[in-house]
Design a protein that fits this description.
1226 residues; disordered C terminus
């Protein structure tokens, strides 16, 4: 009917809707119909007995009153009711059939000469068909009125609708609608939940299915559902919603895709402003429709666009594309058929291709069987559903690992954060990572799978499933799930430690049972040495009480209180690890003792754990280098607290004279150890570092030392001393306790011999003598005492301050009091040869003229000359120095000569004195001094003038030496072409450079075949002569200085020259040493100059074997990172004073870079320096820098600027991966 556009007459359909159809069925009418239809009277009586057995009563104030029996109606929901209603509808069927036989209605024919259809019944729904004329319309009205009168049914005219065929005129439609008094059927109206008719737009006809799914998902979106919960809702509800429609219609592919997209979004997570990663997705097309092969080619250079191809294609696809050779001619893009030899399309080739693809895509029987077996085993495991779901996603690599993030270009590296060695895919996280190895070593699977290491997690699970012990399989599944969850929380989980069960006799209530269970668990955790424990249980009131210190009068409070008291008691045998149970908390949880992060490792100390950010207040062995994650802190059975690395010497934290039996982290911030008599035999309050807490005293003879910085708790350069004379004084570190070196004091000199500095809980900071008398109130006190913490600390800038922090969510540190408001007061803040000035109350450090900072990241390291010191007169008697005044500056008086003179005479006298390097003039007195100068400070009101001797650089340029100076002459004797190229290169490079760590060119000769270069003479030969000659080897401090100076020279070539220069041959033989053993880079014959816009170049291999970067051998572009690699080898040689390859040593030690990484990995760096006494922190820093420099992958190597910052200690150095790590091999 919807498609009928032509014909003599049209048709219409009347869709009937009966109002309260079941409720209006008259019992007398139903009984008469059944008897009329020929049902046996006894059967009719049985049916009517069932129908008429109903009765009703009315609830009045909640109580039933009266009973009455209705005379009509069928029960809704009764399975018999639809059939009985159909019997009632037989009356309407009889009337319609009678009218059809009389010719009053004709209905419609589905086809020519076919049977005619006048009505369709389905339960209480009815469709009536007739022609579009007033006669048949009137016949329908008469029949309906007669049926309503007999059955007491009533037509609902607001829901009854008319539908007309397309050929019915609009005027006719309007008249018939008026006669019947019912509306016309709207487009896409539903009948029994399905479209009444489906037109051309099938998508619009079934749009309600998508809307229903979307509305249902929207209702679930904001609920906290796990993926397993989402899976249950999807399978039980969402997938069932379109099932009814699909049983009648074939849905569009686009609609099915839309439904799948909605389900995927709900499954993986989504929101208005967020989109989570879909780890299992269908392939995407990254190209536009008009994309061509030519867009992947750099037409100017006739080469592939490597980075674009690697970004767009999978690795194996990119490799195949990049392996294709390109024509030297520009060719037009052409569509080809790759399945014939001449690349022309043939029908038979397409048929063959489709057959082969169908055969190839069809999985083999064995593979299909194995995969089916794997999924069956996973989904049939007797574990919680979330573990099954995890295993399924893990087998499909559909989890957020770093390897997946890297493939999607979301992170710069796929390397695992825990081991820093391999890419972090799911198999690595679960099985191969060092952080999880220990979990599996004790399992029965470990030794079996070592013979055949798994290549994928699916393979690993398949092997485990072959195990006959079902409990082992369940344990494996649960452990993998826990490992993944702990990895996401940044901690490493081990196997189950213990289980506990206990019978409780006659408990009074379930709450008492839960409280007793919590107490037993706390005791067990204490026995196992666990302090950071997550308690889970089904009695939330008990769990919350464990963390609540407020008074509780409930029946179970006594057990909860006992459990709380057990939290801070540490028994013998307890232990801590940096990444698992890392600290012991105080009872309130405010303070903790244990591991905290420092640099790229861990340190042990006391810190505030109850506020955001771990504020460290005490550190054990603060000058030791940070330890790695494989260390354990043990409270041994001997009562000693020590730290034991996996493969290194143990370090004592506390070793009291008396044997300790227990320890405790107190709420005061004091970590204490008790003997068997419960007396304190050791406490952290007795060994303060840089901080005093409430209730703590700085006793007479004790000192606080500042830290290097807020992030580095090592000993800094300032100290606060509680002197025996009763005076509290601040000094620089390394000075005597005399007034000349102090920069702040309490002014209590001579007021007692047993004075201590005290801090009360109301922020009262004061000096107290042995009689209890307060000598000096540094602060008045009287501050808030509840929900606030106070501490006094000598900061890294040399000023000690009193801080407060409120214990609420918005709390932060505030300064209550400070020792000085002038930040330049601390002496030595700017290091040697530096002086402090104030700029808007901030301290600013400056260097002496012609000096530069030793370490750009730390002013306390001071300044050094940026020139090489020479005799103050040359051979000709001409002065090469001048004096530069520095007014209003005050320095330490360390003079070797004191004169009475004028300002001018003082300047002249120092200039003429070769031993004088600076002169301090003040009030007619001239004090001659030598470098270094220290404790410099600029005071505008002071009249002092410092005269600094500096070199006149211009006098050195172009000096004619007349044979009076030793020089080095280099003669090039290679074949003509190569010799000429090397000569020209060296001239270009050295002619453009001038730096104290580059050799200086004095002249040259270019006469036919004679090519000579004249350099300044280096009296100590090359670095190789010093390093590899035992009696000449430099001390440790000298090695560090040499490394830094070489780095400065290379940095100058890479970043500070007009043209970037790649040296290409950095090695000890090309680094010359002057008379002061200052290194200078030489031999630029192989150097490569880059244009200003150029960052890489292709060139033939250059350099010396052993120092050449790997990219030279791989025909890759050469960048400045090639010099970084060479420097890394030189740095390792400098550390060890040996050659990079020495076959005279044992095989393990013969290749230096491999041996160095091995020693670093097992924490045996002492072997690299043959047991020599060196600063361990500096040694570790140097080795880490060297290992980063020699990585195979150039992009992972740091720049020389970063290398210099690392050497100077300005930036933290991450744990380096293996030089031949995974990332280096891809």
């Amino acid at each position: 009917m919807s498609t009928q556009r032509h014909g003599k007459s049209g048709h219409m359909v009347l869709k009937l809707d009966m109002s309260k159809a079941y409720d209006r069925v008259e019992w007398i009418y139903l009984e008469s119909i059944m008897l009329k239809m020929g049902f046996q009277s006894s059967w009719v009586n049985l049916i009517m007995g069932c129908v008429c057995s109903i009765s009703f009563s009315i609830l009045v104030n909640g109580s039933p009153h009266g009973y009455f029996t209705p005379s009509r109606g069928l029960r809704q929901g009764d399975p018999l009711s639809p059939y009985l209603f159909l019997l009632c509808a037989e009356g309407l069927h009889g009337l319609l059939s009678q009218a059809e036989s009389r010719g009053q209605i004709q209905g419609i024919s589905l086809c020519r000469n076919g049977p005619r259809l006048t009505h369709l019944f389905f339960a209480d729904d009815c469709l009536l068909f007739c022609k579009e004329n007033k006669t048949e319309c009137d016949a329908f009205l008469q029949i309906l009125n007669q049926y309503e009168f007999a059955s007491r049914q009533q037509l609902n005219r607001s829901k009854t609708t008319l539908f007309f065929s397309k050929c019915v005129a609009q005027s006719t439609q309007d008249e018939l609608i008026r006669i019947l008094g019912v509306p016309a059927m709207r487009r896409y109206e539903k009948y029994l939940g399905l479209p009444s008719f489906v037109g051309r737009s099938k998508k619009a006809s079934f749009a309600q299915i998508k809307d229903q799914v979307w509305n249902k998902l929207q209702g679930w979106k904001h609920r906290f559902l796990s993926q397993v919960g989402k899976e249950i809702l999807i399978k039980s509800i969402i997938q069932a919603m379109p099932a009814y429609s699909m049983s009648c219609f074939k849905l569009l592919v686009d609609l099915c895709n839309d439904l799948e997209e909605l389900i995927r979004k709900f499954w993986w997570g989504y929101g208005e402003e967020q989109k989570k990663v879909h780890w299992i997705i269908s392939p995407r097309n990254y190209f536009s429709k008009d994309a061509t092969v030519s867009c992947l080619i750099n037409q100017d250079q006739h080469e592939w666009k490597t980075q674009l191809i690697k970004h767009l294609f999978l690795p194996h696809e990119a490799s195949s594309i990049l392996g294709m050779s390109l024509s030297s001619h520009v060719c037009m893009d052409t569509i080809i058929w790759p399945h014939t030899t001449n690349e022309k399309y043939l029908v038979r080739s397409a048929y063959r291709f489709l057959l082969e693809r169908a055969s190839r895509d069809r999985p083999s029987h064995s593979n299909m069987e194995e995969e089916s077996k794997l999924w069956k085993n996973i989904w049939s495991l007797k574990v919680i559903p979330c573990i099954k779901s995890f295993l399924w996603k893990a087998c499909l690599e559909a989890l957020p690992t770093k390897a997946n993030f890297f493939y999607r270009h979301l992170v710069p590296s796929p390397i695992c954060d825990e081991c820093q060695r391999e890419a972090e895919d799911i198999l690595h996280v679960i099985w191969y990572c060092k952080a999880t190895n220990e979990v599996w070593r004790e399992s029965s699977f470990w030794h079996v799978l070592q013979n055949s290491p798994p290549r994928s997690l699916a393979g690993l699970i398949s092997e485990v499933m072959n195990c006959k012990d079902e409990v082992d399989i369940q344990s494996f599944a649960a452990t993998t799930w826990l490992l993944w969850n702990r990895r996401n929380k940044g901690t490493v989980m081990g196997p189950p430690l213990a289980a506990l069960s206990k019978r409780i006799i006659c408990p009074s209530s379930p709450a008492i049972i839960e409280a007793l269970a919590a107490l037993e668990v706390v005791k067990l955790a204490k026995t196992l040495g666990l302090t950071e424990v997550e308690f889970e249980g089904d009695a939330s009131v008990i769990i919350s009480t464990l963390g609540d210190s407020s008074p509780n009068l409930s029946p179970y409070a006594i057990f909860s209180a006992e459990a709380q008291q057990n939290e801070s008691i540490i028994s013998l045998g307890s232990f801590l690890k940096p990444t698992t149970n890392s600290s012991w908390l105080s009872r309130s949880g405010l303070y903790a003792f244990g591991f905290y992060q420092q640099s790229n490792g861990y340190a042990v100390g006391v810190f505030l754990a109850g506020i955001p950010g771990k504020t460290v207040v005490w550190t054990a062995n603060r000058d030791n280098p940070p330890v790695l994650a494989n260390v354990t802190l043990n409270f041994t059975s001997d009562g000693i607290l020590l730290m034991q690395p996996a493969q290194s010497k143990k370090t004592y934290i506390a070793n009291p004279a008396d044997r300790a039996t227990t320890a405790s982290m107190l709420d005061s911030g004091n970590f204490v150890m008790y003997n068997s008599d419960k007396k304190i035999i050791w406490q952290s309050f007795d060994y303060p570092t840089n901080t005093i807490l409430e209730g703590q005293r700085l006793a007479v003879g004790k000192e606080l030392f500042s830290s290097v910085s807020e992030s580095d708790q090592s000993t800094g350069i300032f100290r606060l001393s509680m002197q025996t004379d009763g005076n509290l004084v601040q000094y620089p570190v390394g000075t005597s306790n005399t007034a000349a070196y102090s920069y702040w004091s309490s002014g209590t000199y001579g007021q007692g011999n047993n004075v201590s500095l005290c801090l009360d809980d109301d922020a009262h900071l004061y000096l107290l003598n042995s009689t209890g008398k307060i000598l000096n109130n540094l602060t008045e006190g009287g501050n808030q005492t509840k929900d606030v913490v106070y501490l006094m600390r000598i900061d890294a800038d040399g000023i000690f301050r009193l801080y407060s922090h409120k214990l609420d969510k918005n709390g932060n540190w505030s300064v209550i009091w400070f020792s000085s408001n002038n930040k330049c007061d601390p002496k030595g803040l700017c290091g040697l040869n530096g002086f402090c000035t104030t700029d808007d109350q901030d301290a600013n450090c400056l260097c002496l003229p012609r000096f530069e900072r030793v370490n750009n990241g730390s002013w306390t390291s001071g300044c050094e000359r940026n020139f090489t010191a020479e005799s103050c007169k040359n051979k000709g008697g001409r002065m090469i120095y001048s004096m530069e005044p520095l007014p209003n500056t005050v320095w330490e008086d360390n003079s070797f000569s004191i004169l009475s003179s004028t300002k001018e005479d003082c300047e002249t006298s120092c200039l003429e004195d070769c031993n004088c390097e600076a002169a301090i003039y003040s009030d007619g007195t001239c004090r001659k001094q030598r470098f270094p100068l220290r404790f410099g400070r600029q005071i505008k009101s002071n009249s002092n003038v410092a005269f600094i001797k500096r070199i006149i650089r211009d006098c050195l340029q172009g000096t004619i030496w007349n044979g009076q100076k030793l020089v080095a002459v280099k003669r090039l004797e290679k074949v003509l072409a190569e010799g000429e190229r090397e000569f020209q290169t060296e001239m270009k490079v050295i002619g453009r450079t001038h730096h104290k760590n580059l050799v200086r060119l004095l002249g040259y000769c270019h006469d036919r075949e004679n090519r000579l270069l004249v350099y300044e003479y280096m009296s100590n030969g090359s670095l190789a002569d010093i390093l590899f000659t035992p009696e000449k080897q430099p001390c440790w401090g000298e090695r560090i200085e040499i490394a830094r100076n070489i780095a400065k020279g290379i940095l100058y070539l890479h970043e500070e020259c007009e043209s970037q220069i790649i040296h290409c041959d950095i090695k000890p033989h090309n680094i010359l040493m002057d008379e002061y053993r200052c290194p200078k880079i030489s031999d630029f014959g192989l150097a490569k100059l880059l244009d200003p816009e150029q960052t890489k170049t292709f060139t033939g291999i250059r350099g010396t074997k052993g120092y050449v970067a790997p990219e030279w051998h791989r025909n890759q572009p050469i960048t400045v990172k090639a010099d970084v690699y060479s420097f890394g080898i030189v740095l390792l040689e400098l550390i060890c004073c040996r050659k990079s390859v020495d076959w005279n040593l044992c095989e393990e030690e013969s290749i230096l870079e491999e041996w160095a990484y091995h020693c670093f990995e097992v924490r045996e760096l002492d072997k690299l320096v043959s047991g020599m006494e060196v600063d361990k922190r500096q040694l570790e820093r140097m080795v880490k820098v060297g290992l980063w420099c020699i990585l195979d992958e150039p992009s992972l190597r740091p720049s020389m600027k970063k290398v210099l910052l690392m050497l100077e200690g300005t930036v933290d150095i991450p744990i380096p991966p293996s030089p031949t790590s995974f990332l280096s091999s891809i």
